[in-house]
Amino acid sequence: MPVAIITGASKGLGRALAEALAARGWDLVLDARGAEVLKEAAQALAGHGTRVVALPGDVTDAGHRAGLVAAAWELGGVDLLVSNASALGAEPLVRLDELPPAGLRRALEVNVVAALGLVQEALPLLRESAAGAVVVVSSDAGAEAYETWGGYGASKAALDQLAAVLAVEEPGLRVWAVDPGDMATGLYAAAVPDDDDPRPAPESVVPAFLRLLDERPTSGRYGAPALVEGR
């Protein structure tokens, strides 16, 4: 069975994607900071009959990242790495003149530095895979200027650039940066708690990620809504 590592997998988009992959027979290594919620998610996913390893921890911890890759190696390797774990930098979001430097550092550490660190750890196994792929979850805040989204958006713009360069340096892999669009997630609720407008469930954009895995288009940046509409 193919093996995927998914960070931020206890809820939201990470949990929804893990569910879809488990239903397809993928073995999974899952990460999240909340041990109990992650354990519950892993138990539910194991109901599909696949192997699921849940490792709670912080992706900024190099030892934790090494543990995720070691667990995947035990399952047979790494065919897909999904960097979904994200930090906002401030909750709720604030304008740049109020953004704490420590918050910006946290966003960069989680969204950029840890994502690259995990790729570096997994690269030997990804290169051995017949269909190795890296997915980084981006945001339109990384491409557009939205008030209060500056720190988070800067981190996602940096992540997009890392993904683009990785694709050039590793032509044997597929490297996709995916902007999932608006979703009803805990991250968005923490970012803008006063915004109660209805938003799509994370499950609604999962077909976009599955389409990338099925069709394996060239490496690049993709918008999930366009991928879903194009099916």
TrEMBL record:
Pfam families tied to this protein: adh_short
Residues in the signal sequence: none
Alphabetic keyword roster: Oxidoreductase
SUPFAM superfamilies, per database record: NAD(P)-binding Rossmann-fold domains
Statement: the UniProt record of this protein carries the keyword Oxidoreductase: yes
Entry-linked InterPro entries: NAD(P)-bd_dom_sf, Sc_DH/Rdtase_CS, SDR_fam
GO cellular component, one term: membrane
Keyword Lyase: no
GO molecular function per UniProt: oxidoreductase activity
Family of this protein: Belongs to the short-chain dehydrogenases/reductases (SDR) family.
Name of the protein described by the UniProt record: Oxidoreductase
Originating species: Streptomyces fuscichromogenes
